[in-house]
């Protein structure tokens, strides 16, 4: 564990700072609402053991649990002292662990790995991983500078892949070694439609350059780079890619074709075209626990950069993503059915969601993949922290749209957005909804962000102000409630993104399941052009010190901060013409 503690952003001192800030947030939340206070404290109880165990070792986890010091996850107990005692005890263990000696080192170069940018090193790296696993765990270093080319590799329990400074681990351009990943498919989905009666024909090949399934205490650390070869021409033609196009070009072509009514992806009729052409991901952890991703830079991803599906306990820290703004579906981090996840010190600029918090689609076809023999978990995503991060181009911090299994207890704080399409947004719909609740979003600073705040239960189409409702099939009703957004500042100088036109944002529920108990506090939006905020179908919600400048003077808001969709100007703190 001493080697792991050396990873950027993951050490005893930084753990103490992060947890102390969470404890402070729990105290401050009491001033805003009891719901926020309970939510943040619940997250704290889940996280103290996780983040300290990453440094102190799994065997001492009980000493890291605030409940060992009298903490209680209820509505009245003051847990501050218990949490501080757990932090002190845990970080003391981590400090001691840091000097107990190195972990086992299993160097891929001993198995023939070469950093020449040409040799396929997948077998050498996998052999090193297996050797470390056989010894009970350790570090697999990819060091020495240069570029190591690899095909798909799989991590094992208690084994960490370390990418050294100045070293690149680059994906093969042989597309035939992968099959697509999809949020609605089980891991490395093997399916014969003739035998099962439907679905795609898939052989069960790897679906990510680096994957880990059914393992614990594992991850990727170091300060090197993972290059997914998403923009690189394929090594050769295949039946579904006769022109040997890159992953990104294939996706761009498919997006153009998908504009035709009734279009489905060839071979994948059960994948919505809104999800993008299915391709491999760069990194995927599936049904794993105690995962660490720290310090690395990822770029050129074929599709999603880092997928955490059905993960229990993960820390992603000091993680950087660099993809062009037009790179298709290159989400920086995706959570699906994950719990107890901490995302801190992220630096993400990409072509889609900077961070996406999801829980799954209804199941295509008709929920079949949630049933035997596939058994895709029906698990909500819960207890997530996103903090101390910087987001560049991309689609912002997103909850959804795939929320059919629920999203609970999200805490986001101290995030800058520079030129992202959106700031914070919740996107769900009548075909993919569930309970989406208990969120505290605070201390967000946005520059040249067109939509600072967006909450919609109408995905994928939002009705215009003049349209009262739109006809949609209701199969999985969304219910967004108990959301607190505070201390948001958005400006539009057009220095980061000259084409950006900041709006006042929108919060729009569906009439049969309105958004409930939303609070907006100290929201200040300065736009380059007159604007306002859309509100529709909210109940028992309030706002305080919400300003938008300059305000649009004409209809539909008539000089008020908010429009009059549903008469919401009279919600507490949202009086017409008050600028609040």
Describe this structure in words.
The chain is α/β, with parallel strands linked by helices and 580 residues long. The protein is built from seven helices and 33 strands. It has a 20-stranded parallel sheet that branches. α2 runs antiparallel to α4 and α3 (34-56) packs parallel to α4. The longest helix is centred in the N-terminal third of the chain and has 23 residues, at 34-56. Residues 1-14, 52-62, 94-101 and 575-580 have low confidence and may be disordered.
Roughly what fraction of the amino acids lie in strands?
25-35%
Largest sheet: 20 strands, parallel
Q: What is the multimeric organization of the chains shown?
A: single chain
Number of helices: 7
β-strand number: 33
The end-to-end span amounts to: 52 Å
Shape label: globular
Query: Mean pLDDT, as a whole number?
Result: 86
Judged by helices, strands and strand pairing, the structural class is: alpha/beta
Please give the share of residues in helix. Answer: 10-25%
Low-confidence spans: pLDDT under 50, at least 5 residues?
Answer: 1-14, 52-62, 94-101, 575-580
Q: Whole-number radius of gyration?
A: 24 Å
